[in-house]
Amino acid sequence: MAKRGAALELAVLGLLHEAPMHGYELRKRVTGLLGWGRVLSYGSLYPCLKQMLRDGLLCEDTTYLDLPVGPGARGGRRGKIVYKLTADGKERFATLVSAAGPSAWEDDSFGVRFAFFAATSRETRLRILEGRRSRLEERLEGVRATLARSRERLDAYTLELQRHGLESGEHEVRWLTELIDSERVDRAPSRTIDVQETSTSSTDGQPSSADNRE
């Protein structure tokens, strides 16, 4: 499975490991895990869900919601599919969160792996954090070397973009180092986040007609 597809599978398994969800809620939660500025389309989510159903990792449970009854409206109940993990799905999730190979610290998967660190052993967390830090340090060294060779040929805007990239990478390396130090003394991160300050542009509106399928 491609790296992005593997990250999506882990995100779905991890969220459903916490609680069953219908497609609309699952899409919102997965989008949050994939990172700021990335929106998961239904065209990506539902093929993944269908494949996981075929693989026996998920099962469907249909709950029913009352339909509004009014002038010209038909009374009745409408089905909404809720996805749940099977025993095989729980086993698959346990396997994925215990893996600590290079794919775990790549850009497409690191954020999702980090989101489920609470279900990951300390040894595995350290391997992933250290691997991510090493990968970023290698990348930063390459950018610095390239910038040193080509600085005179770059315009001011390109130089500013390179500077921004370097500062962002250096900031993440410092953050990773703090996390690694905390893990080595067996201490969880203690920072809190102001949700209002970090909220994204997504809204919690009602599901559209397409959402009602799931």
Model description:
- The two termini are 25 Å apart.
- This protein has 8 helices and 3 strands.
- α1 (3-18) packs across α3 (42-54), α1 (3-18) crosses α4 and α6 (122-150) packs antiparallel against α7.
- The protein has helices at residues 3-18, 23-34, 42-54, 87-98, 107-115, 122-150, 156-184, 195-198, and strands at residues 21-22, 58-66, 77-85.
- The protein has a 3-stranded antiparallel beta sheet.
- Helix content is 58%, strand content 9%.
- With 214 residues, it is mainly α.
- It folds into 2 domains: 1-120, Winged helix-like DNA-binding domain superfamily/Winged helix DNA-binding domain (Arc Repressor Mutant, subunit A, Orthogonal Bundle); 121-189.
- The longest helix is centred in the middle third of the chain and has 29 residues, at 122-150.
Q: Just give the CATH class of the largest domain.
A: Mainly Alpha
Sketch the topology as an H/E string, one letter per element: HEHHEEHHHHH
The CATH homologous superfamily name of the largest domain equals: Winged helix-like DNA-binding domain superfamily/Winged helix DNA-binding domain
C-alpha geometry: globular
Q: What would you call the structural class? A: mainly alpha
N-to-C span: 25 Å
Our count of helices gives 8
State mean pLDDT (0 to 100 scale): 81
The CATH architecture classification of the largest domain is: Orthogonal Bundle
Number of folding domains? 2
Largest sheet data: 3 strands, antiparallel
What is the name of the CATH topology of the largest domain?
A: Arc Repressor Mutant, subunit A
**Major sheet strand order:** 1-3-2
Which bin fits the share of residues in helices? 55-70%
Q: Strand-residue fraction?
A: 5-15%
Radius of gyration: 21 Å
Number of strands: 3
Report low-confidence residues grouped into runs of 5 or more.
Answer: 192-214
